[in-house]
Amino acid sequence: MGIAEGDTVELDNVLLIADDNNITVGTPTIEGAKVLATSKGLAKGDKIVVLRFKSKSRYSKKAGHRQKYTRLTIDDIVFPGANKN
């Protein structure tokens, strides 16, 4: 059911880091780079309505869907080769 609110998450599959004029692109990821984030709890996206309809046969079905996701706040971006303090 996602990550509890207030928990810290460490994301290590970093694809790109941009800092002022320096841009680092991974192949496919950047080794040693991490993103530290804090969970703000679960949320739901906008409702999507799916409608199936066939004319002249009185067939129609309506269904809705709301995607659940976890909101994150980025706390720190650790660059490769940075000291772990």
Describe the protein's architecture and organization:
0% of the residues lie in helices and 56% in strands. The chain is built from no helices and seven strands. It has one domain. By secondary structure, it is mainly beta.
Helices, strands, pairings?
Layout lengths: L7 E4 L4 E4 L2 E4 L8 E11 L3 E7 L4 E7 L2 E11 L7
Overview features:
three-stranded antiparallel sheet; mainly beta; 85 residues; elongated; two-stranded antiparallel ribbon; 7 strands
> Can you summarize the main beta sheet?
3 strands, antiparallel
**Averaged pLDDT:** 90
Name the beta content range.
over 45%
Total helical elements: 0
Order of helices and strands: EEEEEEE
Helix content: under 10%
The side-by-side strand order for the widest beta sheet comes to 1-4-7
Distance between the termini: 31 Å
**Domain unit count:** 1
What's the overall geometry? elongated
Q: How much is the radius of gyration in Å?
A: 21 Å
Strand tally: 7
Structural class: mainly beta
Low-confidence stretches: none
Summed up, what is this model?
With 85 residues, this protein is mainly beta. It is 0% helix and 56% strand. The protein is built from no helices and 7 strands.
